[in-house]
Design goal:
ATP-binding, five-stranded parallel β-sheet, AAA_lid_NorR, mainly alpha, Serine Threonine Protein Phosphatase 5, Tetratricopeptide repeat, sequence-specific DNA binding, single chain, DNA-binding, 36 helices, Rossmann fold, nucleotide-binding, about 65% helix
């Protein structure tokens, strides 16, 4: 098929066209159509959202029913019956059974137009249909199965409605498994000629627009989008005297253009907002590029339109080409510096690239270079200033704005990793999980290995901090990111994703009682940290994981050496966050060695002056656990209890459950040390139940031992045996974790 035939075919449904935005949308639709998951179509009124839904239906469920329901056009008291149907006698006037739209859709498509208008009372009922595929007609006691697909559309900003509590957040995420953004007509003017031709073909008599009339329509604003254009052509088709429409005939149907002084003032103000320092040069570049577009690249015609010599345009084009090459060189140099962990050296190079890029206006695909420059600046500032760096976030926002403006999902996905890290480190775990889920969906659609890896690492990391250790490991397995796969991964985030994935494999495995897997991960990270050819930042990531796991597994000599090396390496290279983690782990090791005061001060200083300042609250639970342990060893019971209570409040507020059980156990131990035996017993029993619920094996073993000692001292050996049996359920004594063997020995003595 030739290019012109493809363009005509793309426009044949009245909305699709040859513009880059619509072709990208059509390609995405072809991939989405094969799934039966819900789709949310967003776009302005009149842009053609229903046509997109029908096209999706034809691609995915040809020959099956397409049932549409406008959620804003039916009164609330009737909408539920329309959607679910009703049984006879369900309400006054229900003289017979009536099928609802869900039943009529069958295995086809239910299209919910203007879903943002759906009443709040009906939203949980629709959510249940999406979650369970079951619904119940009004007045009926029988559940029915929904076998079709839901496609929803809205011109409203559902995220804003969620924030205003006018739309359920869980329903939004259920509907937006795949989200399609349909641009307005002003954002895809190259589609207008094909749309004119298509709408002319629908008229009862032949209708043709000449080239000048078509060009005039392409230049006008279309606040009503495709619907406004179609209505205009329908009026012309019915009222025009001649079937050939030229500019003179067209003007009779158009509102007169306004050329008031205010309009020219607005135009001048808009030109002053152009990027770059030299606004006159930017304006000239804008005019040259626009003239070339109008003249389909013909330089002589563009020069004539502008009233200048052809050489002027050629000089401008050569200057843009030279500057583009310079931008590419700065970007390549910045990438190499980041790969060597020279983040400070990369900053001026990337900033110079952006400066030169700002001097080039409307150069084809230059936005991709600008996007990558902003993204890598975000990576560099993040690595130097910490996870919550304001300058890093500003760079990420600039990159996101460019990707959103161009309507591409691949670039959006690549910068989402930076957004996710900020949410995670701020303990905004709900948003972090939603971002990771969005990354997974975008990666699936894009089919790119780098995005898939980043998304699975992000989700596994988030799930760990939420306390879902089993699902965290399963996520790494689904992404083929466990250490057994030995993958060769791309590094696009200035961060060793291999080391990060192995770290969370080991951490999750430890909490689940898979101690051999955790020790294997710790050994791998120790080996990675010793690779002298690795850059310093990647070594810091590996050292953090190795020392962290050494602390959990009780590898005391390894912990001391690894923590000191992490602290020294990070201080040398100004990785302040990792310096703080090293200091926390080094302080814990000092406490275990009997240097209680020095160890406690080191943990507090490392957390407050390095981790909290440069990385956020994510490590609050872990550092509070280890610091409180040292305080208890030092006999500073009340200080330990105050610290644990504060950490528990923070963990509960943010749903951070990774070290919840450890903090609860320390509270029980602290109460026991304070002589409050009854309160301690209650706290320890609560901890054991929580550990069993979360699947936290180490915490349940240590809690079982602590509770057993208390019960044995109190003369309740039978209860002590029951506690140990509960704590040891499903765990082998020789699993390689000392508390398991100790609990097994205790139980054997109690049974004698």
């Amino acid at each position: 098929m030739g290019a012109s035939s493809r363009e005509q075919g793309a426009a044949s449904n009245g909305v699709m066209g040859p513009s880059r935005a619509m072709q990208a949308l059509h390609a995405l639709m072809e991939r989405v159509a094969a799934s039966d998951r819900p789709v949310l179509i967003c776009g302005p009124t009149g842009a053609g959202k229903e046509v997109i839904a029908q096209q999706l239906h034809r691609l995915g469920a040809p020959g099956k029913p397409f049932i549409d329901l406008n959620c804003g056009a039916i009164p609330e008291y009737l909408l539920e019956a329309e959607l679910f149907g009703h049984a006879r006698g369900a309400f006054t006037g229900a003289v017979g059974e009536r099928a609802g739209h869900l039943q009529m859709a069958g295995a086809g498509t239910l299209f919910l137009d203007e879903v943002g208008e759906l009443p709040l009372t009906l939203q949980p009922k629709l959510l249940r249909v999406l979650e369970t595929r079951q619904y119940r007609p009004l007045g009926s006691s029988e559940n029915r199965h929904f076998a079709g697909r839901v496609i929803a559309a809205t011109h409203r900003d559902l995220k804003t409605l969620v924030h205003e509590e006018r739309f359920r957040e869980d329903l939004y995420y259920r509907l937006a498994v795949f989200e399609l953004e349909l641009p307005g007509l002003d954002a895809r003017r190259e589609d207008i000629p094909g749309l004119i031709q298509y709408f002319c073909s629908l008229q009862p008599r032949p209708l043709t627009f000449d080239a000048r009339a078509t060009a005039l329509l392409c230049q006008r604003d279309w606040p009503g989008n495709v619907r406004e254009l179609r209505n205009l052509i329908d009026r012309i088709g019915a009222l025009a005297q001649s079937p050939l429409i030229d500019c003179a005939a067209l003007q009779a149907f158009l509102e007169p253009a306004q050329h008031s002084p205010q309009k020219w003032a607005n135009l001048a103000e808009a030109l002053l907002q152009l990027d770059g320092g030299d606004k006159l040069a930017a304006t000239e570049n804008l005019l040259v590029e626009h003239a070339l577009q109008r003249c389909k690249g013909n330089k002589s015609a563009a020069a004539q339109l502008l009233g200048v010599n052809r050489k002027v345009i050629e000089r401008r084009q050569k200057l843009r080409a030279d500057k583009r090459l310079a931008v590419e060189r700065y970007l390549a140099q910045g990438r190499l510096l980041i790969e060597d962990a020279d983040f400070r050296g990369a900053l001026p190079v990337l900033q110079k690239g952006l400066q030169v890029a700002g001097e080039v206006f409307e150069c084809k695909d230059l936005w991709r270079l600008q996007f990558e420059l902003h993204r890598l600046l975000g990576v560099s500032f993040r690595s130097i200033e910490g996870w919550l760096s304001d300058t890093s976030q500003a760079s990420y926002r600039s990159a996101l704005a460019l990707a959103a403006e161009q309507g591409t999902s691949d670039e959006l996905s690549s910068v989402q990793f930076g957004v996710w890290t900020t949410q995670l480190m701020s303990l905004d775990l709900g948003k972090a999980r939603a971002t990771a889920q969005d990354m997974l969906q975008r990666a699936q659609l894009a089919g790119l290995s780098a995005l898939r890896i980043e998304a699975h690492v992000a989700m596994a990391n988030t799930l760990f901090w939420l306390g879902d250790f089993e699902e965290s490991l399963a996520c790494l397995n689904r992404g083929e990111l466990l250490s057994e796969y030995q993958p060769d991964w791309p590094q696009t985030q200035g961060l060793d994703l291999i080391g990060l994935a192995i770290t969370f494999e080991g951490l999750a495995a430890f909490e689940l009682g898979r101690f051999a897997q955790a020790r294997h991960a710790q050994a791998q990270l120790t080996a990675r940290a010793g690779q002298t050819d690795a850059n310093a930042f990647n070594r810091a990531v590996a050292l953090q994981g190795a020392a962290w796991l050494a602390a959990l597994l009780g590898l005391q000599p390894d912990l001391g050496a690894l923590a000191r090396e992490l602290e020294q390496l990070s201080a040398c290279h100004e990785f302040s966050f990792y310096q703080g983690v090293g200091q926390i782990l080094r302080g814990y090791h000092q406490g275990l060695e009997g240097f209680y005061d020095e160890g406690e001060r080191a943990i507090a200083d490392g957390y407050h002056h390095h981790v909290l300042r440069n990385g956020g609250q994510l490590f609050h639970g872990f550092q509070a656990w280890k610091r409180a342990e040292v305080l208890l060893l030092a006999g500073r019971v009340r200080e330990a209890l105050a610290l644990v209570n504060s950490a528990l409040d923070l963990a509960q507020d943010h749903q951070e459950r990774a070290y919840l059980c450890e903090l609860m156990l320390l509270k029980g131990r602290g109460l026991l040390a304070a002589g409050e035996q009854d309160e301690a017993e209650s706290a320890l029993r609560n901890t054991l139940s929580t550990a069993l619920t979360l699947g936290n094996v180490p915490a349940r073993l240590r809690t079982g031992l602590e509770l057993t000692r208390l019960l044995q001292r109190d003369g309740r050996p039978e209860q002590a045996a029951q506690v140990l049996e509960r704590a040891l359920r499903g765990i082998e004594a020789d699993c390689g974790y000392p508390p398991a063997q100790e609990a097994s020995d205790w139980l054997a003595r109690l049974r004698r």
